[in-house]
TrEMBL record, chain A:
Residues 89-295 form the Cytochrome c assembly protein domain. Coiled coil: none annotated. Residues 315-639 form the Cytochrome c-type biogenesis protein CcmF C-terminal domain. It is a multi-pass membrane protein. NCBIfam families: nrfE (TIGR00353), PRK10369.1 (NF007691). This is Cytochrome c-type biogenesis protein CcmF. Keywords: Cell inner membrane, Cell membrane, Cytochrome c-type biogenesis, Membrane, Transmembrane, Transmembrane helix. The chain crosses the membrane at residues 6-27, 39-60, 96-114, 121-142, 177-197, 209-229, 249-266, 273-293, 313-331, 352-374, 394-413, 425-442, 448-468, 619-637. Required for the biogenesis of c-type cytochromes. Possible subunit of a heme lyase. It is found in: Cell inner membrane.
UniProtKB/TrEMBL annotation, chain B:
Belongs to the CcmH/CycL/Ccl2/NrfF family. Keywords: Heme, Iron, Membrane, Metal-binding, Signal, Transmembrane, Transmembrane helix. This is Cytochrome c-type biogenesis protein. GO terms for cellular component: membrane. CDD domains: CcmH_N. It is found in: Membrane. One of its GO terms (biological process) is cytochrome complex assembly. GO terms for molecular function: metal ion binding. PANTHER family: CYTOCHROME C-TYPE BIOGENESIS CCMH-LIKE MITOCHONDRIAL PROTEIN, PTHR47601. Residues 9-150 form the CcmH/CycL/Ccl2/NrfF N-terminal domain.
Amino acid sequence: MIVETGHFALALALALALMQIILPFWGARAHDGRLMATARPLALTQFALVALAYAALTYAHVVSDFSLVNVVENSHSTKPMIYKISGVWGNHEGSMMLWALILTLCGAAMAAFSRAIPPRLLADSISVQGCLSAAFLLFILLTSEPFARIATPPIEGNDLNPILQDPGLAIHPPLLYLGYVGFSIVFSLAAGALIGGRIDAAFARFIRPWTLVAWVFLTLGIAMGSYWAYYTLGWGGFWFWDPVENASLLPWLAGTALLHSASVMEKREALKIWTIFLAILAFSLSLLGTFLVRSGVLTSVHSFASDPTRGMFILGILVLFIGGALFLFMLRAPTLTGGGLFAPISREGFLVVNNLLLTAACAAVFIGTLYPLALEAWNGSKITVGAPFFNLTFGPLFAPILILAPLGQLLAWKRADLLGAAQRLFLVAALGLVAMLGFYALQGGPVVSVVCAGVAIYLMTAAFAEIWGRVFPQGVRRSANALARLAGLPLSAWGAALAHAGLGVTLLGLAATGWGVEKITRIQPNELYQVGPYALQATSVDSAEGPNYREAIVHMTIARDGKTVATFDPSKRFFRTRQMATSQAGIVTLNLGQIYVAVAEQNPDGSFDARMYWKPLVSLIWLGALAMALGGTLSLADRRLRVGVARRAKLPANLQAAE
Amino acid sequence: MRKTLLAVAALAALALPAHALQPDEILPDPKLESRARNISAELRCLVCQNQSIDDSDASLARDLRTLVREQLKAGKSDQDIKSFLVDRYGNFVLLKPPFEWDTAALWLSPFALFAVGGFFIWRNSRNRKTEAAPAAPLSDEESEKLKALLNRDA
């Protein structure tokens, strides 16, 4: 009964989505405030209904209702509760349900928190958001039915893929989807603005908070996914340029470009056309990612052709929305007048270059991901585009951003003095060079690592040099009012500094991978093995019974200079139902670096095959991403930039005008 | 035929969980071994999704790793080994696609896009410059007016 209620709620949500398409849109045309006002209750109720359906599916998983195909195929009665709940989105149908849940959540958030947005723009945008929900709810109901019953329910389920039985499953997909789907709000607002045809600096202000929210979640989602891969795969790789990863990186790159171009549009009314285009692009790439992951096209064009229903449906959604938005864009773009003028050497000019580089880097990932599919469809030849391609194309296009970002931050709007900014940055750049020499002297090793580490130091220092420059502006008596200026700095300035520094932190972590130590060897119990600065020793062997697996554990200790600094237990899990083994790497964080050990089954003579690593500073890769996300959150918390409070916030007169 | 072989290999990979590079595969000569690692990192495990044979747990990957090392021991060059595998499996085995007529667009388009975008921005900024030429200086009359206004405020 509960399950049927869920199914019914889903169908009802679809009906509301259809009304949400028509009524507000009609109201906007007819200048009927009451019709436009239906948007809010429609969006909120629709979210409530999808949430109900989602809860019903979760309930079926929690109580192991094996009369549902979805539960039989992906669950087991002995599966731990956390994976019964998170396992809901660990399969196609459930993950589409999560997608729909977050999509309608976005619609509801848009309807609830957008009082400052002009009613007609909001009505049109909510109507577009309704189109999106309707399309995805239809997709679920027609091709991916999560509530299908089974005629003769089995006693036990097939269990969830053991690789997914990890806390990462509980965290990574929701974060990623909040990011992916969060861009739908920006997309709808852009489409709504294009329909209405009135696009000014205020538009950038409307999309900014939503862009930031989506970007923060996407940043966290990607970082979490990368860390999950890192500790699961048994050898410590964290980024593989896999199409599925690329699918999440694409909207991130477009979203990052959007954040920067929207700031130009907001402050100077320039780059309007470009900002609208990026707003469309970011979500279009999210849709593309969903298509790639959900249609099966990645495995091969042929496997896609063998069961094309789902793939064709999502492809239809893709073409409809991207095509529709671009068509609107084509109609309206010529009527948009350019705003504020600026010289090439200016904050705006550098942000344009930032956007060009980010877009080109995004294109490199896009082409690398899709080219093999296109080529196979075209002339049947199969090629692989792997990490070496992306390192050679994405790398050179992204690297200049790292050098230019700090410089751009020091430039004034409209027209700036490049030489002056370069002079102010001179000390920081020098520090970066000294750091390079220092790293070379201390670590030696690959030139790439040394150079990247130097650039990372430069990025981190420069991010705060910008704050310094604003607290002690040139031409003002040094200490006068410095504290007042520091206190008066808008949160968004701190946010930008922190996010840019985070980029440097991640880069330093990446650079340090070049100094890692790897030891793949057969280890004997109680013998010492030197890995980097640490001595590792397997002290004893154990076995344990988990709820749905058997675990072979190796107890190990880490010592430095004869003193034990940590103990840890890498293990191997064997899952009964699916007859699959997973490796639980033993990881210990020491001074921002990590000791990483993965073991295989015990050999008859008592030894183990082990992969042991010392990965210096590796945790910085993800700490940097956290800093970026925190920077985005600080920016979001900035009162001035929140919609609706802009006029109320006032700056003390003695402070320099914000940015 | 190759498809069937791949399918069989994929099944075999599922049945017998092997592991990424294992201690018993490592060559005693560190120089040869480091070459083997570099080559392995550029070869695709054909039955996996986008994994190199160095990282893959599939048994096919293990076979290929062994093959690479045997050929190295036989004194073959890196290029020889890659060509040998390309003859056998096609370009599909290379993680770095070779620059050929049908991959030229792949390699060049990101940079072409950058160049074209850069060109447009450059042209635009030149147009802007002419538009943004400094406004004509104030006439004497206007200067007087401005001065009067400023003085009134002060």
